[in-house]
Amino acid sequence: MRPPYPPSPERSAELRRRFAEEARSERPDLSTLCLLVGAEADRELDEAGLDAAQVELDRLAGLLPFRPGGPRAWAVALRELLGERMGFHGTPGDYQRLESSLLHEVLVRRRGLPILLSVVWLEVARRAGAPVYGVALPGHFVVGFGPDEGQVLADPFDGGRVLTGADAELLVAGATGSGIDPSMLRPADPLDVVLRILNNVRAWAAARPERSDVAWWAVELSLLLPSHPARLRYERAQLLVQRGEFVAGAVELEAYAEVVSAVDEAAAERVRGEAHAARAMLN
To answer: Helix, strand or coil for residue 210?
Structure first.
């Protein structure tokens, strides 16, 4: 499969405008945000492709039985449709592919990272009226059905397997080495889901310095979210330097140093040193 590359600057500017607008809306739409991420990643994803992905989610939702019952019945119905009948699941190799973080590709390949497969579960179930939400367990995203007292968890990466309490404990222990905390089971905010997806994209790009183009758009989109880590500004500045924009990178490093100096002067001084080094690259 061809590696995806970003679109033209004009197309990218329009996609980012729409992404920022959706992220700041009263009720941000998760599928729309994820598909805009995909369009920023893949120049081949045009407006017709964006519409086709939404239509596919609608189609899958229409294949679910009408209100199958309580939370467990919903989880089983999603597993039978998406995991068993449609073949959505993940494999270890999916962690090495950028496409595994792009919703339109996941809908075609029926493979992806846990969080993107969970987005498919969430969007199909939501359209069908299920009481569904994302659950951001440390290191492994799953979906939840029903209220706290009757919560049912399912793992889309494992084909939608319904998890027991012991299963969830093992997932968390494998990621953290400690037990599960009730706060880990709370519904994930859609914008937090998008930020986590973009974090995965940035991690993929960090291991591939030749794909700084991917790191760049992932940072830019992350910064458009209403709430994001301040350190992303530092990462953006580093990318500017890496891409040869030494003055712009130095300016952003100096601005970040000013913010950091209020809490950690030693760290701020290190960043100022990086800014000085970036300016020296012009000589």
So the answer is: helix
Q: Distances in Å between the alpha carbon of 261 and those of 230, 231, 241, 246, 255? A: 13, 13, 21, 22, 10
Beta carbons of 45 and 2 less than 8 angstroms apart = no
Arithmetic mean of pLDDT, 249-268: 92
Please say whether the beta carbons of 133 and 188 come within 8 A.
yes
The pLDDT score that the predictor gives to residue 183 is: 86
Q: pTM for the whole thing?
A: 0.93
User: From CA 31, how far away is CA 18, in angstroms rounded?
Assistant: 13
Confidence of residue 1 (pLDDT cuts 50, 70, 90): low
The pLDDT assigned to 114 comes to 96
Task: Kindly report, residue by residue over 28-42, the tens digit of the pLDDT.
Answer: 999 999 999 999 999
Cα–Cα dist 41/114, whole Å: 19
Element (H, E) at 48: helix 47-62
Contact between 110 and 46 (Cβ < 8 Å)? no
Residue 106 near residue 83, CB atoms below 8 Å? no
- Which residue in the block uniquely carries the two structure tokens 């309580």? 70
Contact between 20 and 224 under an 8 Å Cβ cutoff? The reply is yes
Q: Encoding tokens for residue 183?
A: 């706060």
pLDDT of residue 205: 95
Q: How far is CA 81 from CA 4, 20, 77, 92, in A?
A: 29, 33, 6, 22
Q: How far is CA 85 from the centre of its chain?
A: 25
Cα–Cα distance measured from residue 127 to residue 58, given in angstroms and rounded to the nearest whole number? 7
Segment (H or E) for 261 = helix 246-261
